Amino acid sequence: MKIRDLKLLPTRVGRRHHLIIKIETDEGISGWGESGLIGRELAVMGALRHYRELIIGKNPFNIGAIWQDLYRSQYFEGGRVLTAAISAIDIALHDIKGKALGVPVYQLLGGKHRDWVPLFATTHAPMGPKLLEDAALLMGEGWNIIRTTMHSPHELNEAGESVYEPWESIGPTAHWLNKLREALGSQAVLGIDYHHRLSVAEAASFCQKLGSDTLDFLEEPIRDETPEAYEALRRMTHVPFAIGEEFSSKWQFLPYIERGITNYARVDVCNVGGLTEAMKVAGWAEAHYIDLMPHNPLGPICTAATAHLAASVPNFASLEIRQSPTEQSGFYDERLFPVQHERVGPRLIISDRPGLGVEFDEHAGAHEEFVPDLRLERTRYMRRRDGSLTNW
C-alpha cells in the first residue's frame, strides 16, 4: 500500500473553521485527520502542501518513520505550524492503518483500558446567578466535572475590539466561584479556564481570594513560554494546574512534567504532533503520576482521535467536550459527520469500528464555505482601555 494523495478540506463547522485533511492510498483506503491551530489555518495549509510532496509514495503503515521524516527533514525543526500539520497527517495515517487491519485505532496503541471516556462540561455563563443555574443543570444531568470561564464583561472599544482588564476580572470571578463551590458541595469537580489572561502576580492574587477547597484545577492562568514563571506561581498557590494545550511537542512538555509544574497534562492531539507524539507524552506523564486532561476544542475527528488516546492510557482524568446541555457549538453536525462516536450524557462511548470510527462527508462540507477573513481575527484581539494588547 502506498499514499496516493493528500487533500485539504477546510470547512466551516458550527461557529469555527476546521482544517480537515484526507489521505488517500492506492488500495482505496483513506483516512481523516485534522489540524488544531485555530485561526492560523492558511499557514498550516501551506505546510501541508509542502508535506504532501514528501509523503506521496510512502507506505502509510510506517507512521513513526513518516513522523520523523516530517519533523526532522529540515534544519529548522518543529514549531506550532509544522506540528499542527504533522498532527493532521499522523491522525489520518492511524485511521488508514486501523481500517486496513480491520481494528479500531486504540488497538494500534496497545488496546483499551476503559470502555467509555469520562467527559467534562464547560459553562460560559457569566459570573453571577446564571452560573449557579447552569452548574445545577449540569449536575442534575450527571455532569460532575464542570469547568467555568472567567468574568469578562462584554465591552468593545471604538474599533470593535473586546476590552478586558485582568484586575477587574479577578475579584468577581473568585467571589462567584466560592459561591459555586458552596452551592455544588464537595462531590463536584470544579475548574476554570483563565485562557492565559493573567500575569503571575494577578494569578497569585486570584488564587489567594479563593477558598481552600474551591477549585480542583486552574487551567492556563498565564502564558506558557517561560516554565520559571509557572514555577514562581506554583510556590504561591496550592491550586492544581492544568497546562499544555498549546504545546507542540514532547519537548515543550518536558519542564512541566520533569519539574512538577503541572498536575494535569492538557495534551492536544491535533497540535502536539498527533497520536504518535501524544502517546509519548502520556507515558512520560505516567512516570510522574500526572493524568491527562486533553484539550478538545474541535469536532468529531479531533474527539475520535483523543478518545482512542484516552482509551489506550492508564493515566487519564477527563476529556473536554463541546457538546453538553450548556454548550451547543455545532461542531458535531451529523450532516457533515454522519459517523461519529456516541455520547451518552457525560460519557463518550469508544467506537469499535475500524480506524478512528468517524467519517466526514466531503461533499456536504464543500457547501460550508471556508473563507478566511483576517479582519475576523481582530474579534479575537483584546485591548485594555489604554489601547494596549492583552491576551485573548
Q: Outline of this structure?
A:
With 392 residues, this protein is an alpha/beta fold. 35% of the residues lie in helices and 19% in strands.
Return Rg in Å: 21 Å
Q: What would you say the CATH architecture of the domain at 112-352 is?
A: Alpha-Beta Barrel
Q: What's the assembly state of these chains?
A: single chain
Q: What is the CATH class designation of the domain at 112-352? A: Alpha Beta
**Termini Cα gap:** 45 Å
Number of separate helices = 12
**H-E string:** EEEHHHHEHEEHEHEHEHEHEHEEEEEHEE
**Assigned CATH superfamily of the domain at 112-352:** Enolase-like C-terminal domain
Count every beta strand, where a strand is a DSSP E run of 2 or more residues: 18
Describe the protein's architecture and organization.
- With 392 residues, this protein is of the alpha/beta class.
- It has a domain of 241 residues: TIM Barrel (Alpha-Beta Barrel).
- Helix content is 35%, strand content 19%.
- The protein is built from twelve helices and 18 strands.
- The strands form four sheets. Strands 4, 5, 7, 8, 9, 10, 11, 12, 15 and 16 form a ten-stranded mixed beta sheet that branches. The chain has a three-stranded antiparallel beta sheet with strand order 1-2-3. The chain has a three-stranded mixed beta sheet with strand order 6-17-18, with no helix packed on it.
- α8 links the parallel β8 and β9.
- α1 crosses α3 and α6 runs parallel beside α7.
